[in-house]
Structures are given as C-alpha cells and as structure tokens.
C-alpha cells in the first residue's frame, strides 16, 4: 500500500541499499577479498571506501538513523554508486541538498534541438543557454532580429546585444523593462551556476560598461520569465508585437528554446510583409 507522503530518511536509506546491491563488484577496481559474498552488489565497506566516508556512516545512512549528509557527501555517494543524472538528482532531493552543476554549461546546440529550431519555421525560434548565449536560430529569427552569422561568437549573446549593439539597443520599444527582466534572469542564473566563470565575466563587463545595468543589477531583482510580450521597432517592417514562449528540454535543461508569435493582427501583417521581401 502506497503511503501518502514520502519519508525522506527511510527512502534515502532504501535507495542507497537498492543502488548498492545492483552494482557488479567486477566493474570496480577493488581489493580482492577471500570470503564469499552473501548478498548481491557491493559491500557497505566498499561503498564507504569509494565514497571516502566511514563504514559506520554508511551503516547509519542505510538504517535510516536520521542523518542528513552534506552536499559533498551526497556527491561522493552518487559517484561511488555510479548514479545516472536523474538518480543523482533524486538522491540530492532526498538528502534535501542542492547539487552543484556537474556538467559544463552548454556552448553548442544539442543537434536534435538545432533541428527543432529549423523545423519550427515559419515561427521565429532560437536556442540559448542560461547566460543568454545564442546557440542556434532559424532564418525567421535572423530576419526579425539580426543576422547572427555576421557576429563573432563572443557577441552572440542576447543581453550583450541589448546593451552594446547599436541597432539592437534601440530595437525594443520598452527597452528598460526588457533589460530589467533580462537582469533578473541573469541574477537567478548566476546563483544557480556559481562556478560559471564566463557568466561572471559577462556580468562584470556589463557592470563596467553600462551604467543602467550596474544600477539595476544592484537592485537584486529575481525573475525567470517563461513567457511574455515584447514590442519590437523593426527598421523595415515597423512596430511588431510578439508573444514569446521559453521551453526547457528535459534532456538538455541548460538550453532554452525561445519561440516568437505575432501578438496581434497588425503585427502579423507587418511580419508577413517582412517575410515577403
């Protein structure tokens, strides 16, 4: 019979035992022991050795005796038990700890997502990572915003363009709101990826070069916008209002798929005229 709530301590104990018992000792470079194995998987002392903790600590964890392992210990256990990414996240949740970002931030588009960006035509679409680096885009997005191919990779960043590019700086009708929302997202990303040096360098550059960014960054607003509305001042098509949607793929959670749609009939007509050219 299923319980109504999760007892995290007991589930942590059961999960550690189950994952230890499913491991094949032959897959590990462990000292050989003469005595026969009476249970499947690794012994507790072997897990303790691999994780760099005491045997007693493993025993108490597996007996559900109220321990709350630190993030470093959880990470060591995840490595010792060779947990898959989803299992690792589950272990961190049970231990009520926050995992460090083990993988390097994406700097290239995952191929299936790059194909999806192309397949979304005629809707303008692009793929970004958490620091707003633009990793992939379709022709419609380039036509609406900017030909990203003409930019060096270091400038293919949505916030950099909004702050530094002479054309894009004047592109948004409500520029202050757009920049403030971008800053609120970057601050959340900065806290979630404390080891991302490239993100820290970007924020330092923006703070040094743009007084508005420095002032608004200091206000410490936090907001992650998954959808919204922007009004664009296109040099050829005139004013175009768009609704945007931001989707995060489960397999590539560091990448964000951004899709634009015309927000009203006037904007749809302006977009059609632009595409017809």
TrEMBL record:
<feature type="domain" description="HTH cro/C1-type">
    <location>
        <begin position="34"/>
        <end position="88"/>
    </location>
</feature>
<dbReference type="InterPro" id="IPR041413">
    <property type="entry name" value="MLTR_LBD"/>
</dbReference>
<dbReference type="Pfam" id="PF13560">
    <property type="entry name" value="HTH_31"/>
</dbReference>
<dbReference type="Pfam" id="PF17765">
    <property type="entry name" value="MLTR_LBD"/>
</dbReference>
<dbReference type="InterPro" id="IPR001387">
    <property type="entry name" value="Cro/C1-type_HTH"/>
</dbReference>
<dbReference type="InterPro" id="IPR010982">
    <property type="entry name" value="Lambda_DNA-bd_dom_sf"/>
</dbReference>
<protein>
    <submittedName>
        <fullName>Helix-turn-helix transcriptional regulator</fullName>
    </submittedName>
</protein>
């Amino acid at each position: 019979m299923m319980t109504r709530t999760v007892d995290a301590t007991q589930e942590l104990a059961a999960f550690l035992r189950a994952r230890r018992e499913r491991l094949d000792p032959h897959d590990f470079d462990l000292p050989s022991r003469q005595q026969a194995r009476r249970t499947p998987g690794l012994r507790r002392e072997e897990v303790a050795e691999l994780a760099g903790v005491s045997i007693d600590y493993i025993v108490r964890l597996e007996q559900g005796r109220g321990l709350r392992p630190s993030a470093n210990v959880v990470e060591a256990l995840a490595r010792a038990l060779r947990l898959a990414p989803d299992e690792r996240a589950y272990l961190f949740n049970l231990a009520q700890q926050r995992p460090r970002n083990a993988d390097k931030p994406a700097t290239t588009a995952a191929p299936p997502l790059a194909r999806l960006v192309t397949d979304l035509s005629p809707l303008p679409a692009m793929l970004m990572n958490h620091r707003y680096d633009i990793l992939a885009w379709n022709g419609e997005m380039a036509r609406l915003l900017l030909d990203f191919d003409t930019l060096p990779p270091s400038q293919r960043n949505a916030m950099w363009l909004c702050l530094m590019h002479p054309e894009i700086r004047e592109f948004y009708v409500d520029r202050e709101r757009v920049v403030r929302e971008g800053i609120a997202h970057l601050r959340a990303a900065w806290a979630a990826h404390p080891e991302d040096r490239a993100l820290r360098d970007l924020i330092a550059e923006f703070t040094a070069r743009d007084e508005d960014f420095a002032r608004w960054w200091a206000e410490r607003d936090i907001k992650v916008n998954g959808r919204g509305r922007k009004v664009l001042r296109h040099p050829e098509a005139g004013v175009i209002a768009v609704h945007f949607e931001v989707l995060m793929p489960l397999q590539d959670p560091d990448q964000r798929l951004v899709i634009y749609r015309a927000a009203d009939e006037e904007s749809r007509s302006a977009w059609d005229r632009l595409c017809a050219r």
